[in-house]
Amino acid sequence: MGLTFEVAEGGFLDIDVTITGPDQKVIHHEERASNGKYTFAAHMDGEYTYCFSNRMSTMTHKVLMFTMDIHEKEATHSPDSKHESTDHNKLEEQISELTSALIAVKHEQEYMSVRERVHRSINDSTNSRVVMWAAFEALMLTAMSLGQVFYLRRFFEVRRVV
């Protein structure tokens, strides 16, 4: 069994993860993780629990992407013919390899999609800050220019004493 997760949005991009077995024993516990991959062998039949906790920052919602992989043991076959058995086993092995490679590619694409969303959010935030700062600088430059014009005008103004 396996679990892969990543926090896409929210707060400091951290979350607590706990994996519990059917006997209520904690298999894995991790605090303030932003992403992770954990694989383990199921030691008994039953319901395994994946718990993601946002206890540290309850005011901020989180967007979390996770995938669970469950691999079952392969059943052994008792074929009649030895030649058919080897060809059949080779074909099954190739199909199994292709399936696992396809699943790995799918998970990698999902991971890249989440990373792209996180980086897009960071870039948009940085872009808006840069635009606001540039607008503030333009306003300050205009105010300073007007102040200097009025100051220089007053400086060169001729005052008559009557």
What features would you describe in this structure?
- By secondary structure, the protein is an alpha+beta fold.
- The protein folds into two domains: 73 residues, no CATH class; 82 residues.
- It contains one helix and six strands.
- The strands form two sheets. The chain has a three-stranded antiparallel β-sheet, with helices on one face.
- The longest helix is centred in the C-terminal third of the chain and has 74 residues.
- The model has no long low-confidence stretch (mean pLDDT 86).
- Its main location: membrane.
- This is GOLD domain-containing protein.
- It is a single-pass membrane protein; Single-pass type I membrane protein.
- Pfam families: EMP24_GP25L.
Describe the structure concisely.
The chain has 162 residues and is of the alpha+beta class. The chain has one helix spanning 82-155; strands at 2-9, 15-20, 26-33, 35-39, 49-53, 63-69.
The helix/strand series, from N terminus to C terminus, equals EEEEEEH
How large is the count of helical segments?
1
Major beta sheet, specifics? 3 strands, antiparallel
Instruction: Please tell me the total number of domains.
Output: 2
Which of globular, elongated, flat, extended, rod-shaped describes the shape? elongated
Measured by DSSP, the beta-strand proportion falls in: 15-25%
How far is it from the N-terminal to the C-terminal residue, by CA? 99 Å
Spatially, the strands of the biggest sheet line up as: 4-1-6
- Supply Rg: 31 Å
What's the β-strand tally?
6
Average predicted local confidence, pLDDT: 86
Spans where pLDDT lies below 50 across 5 or more residues: none
Percentage of residues in helical conformation = 40-55%
Structural class: alpha+beta
Membrane topology: Single-pass membrane protein; Single-pass type I membrane protein
Subcellular location: Endomembrane system; Membrane
Transmembrane segments: 130-152
Protein name: GOLD domain-containing protein
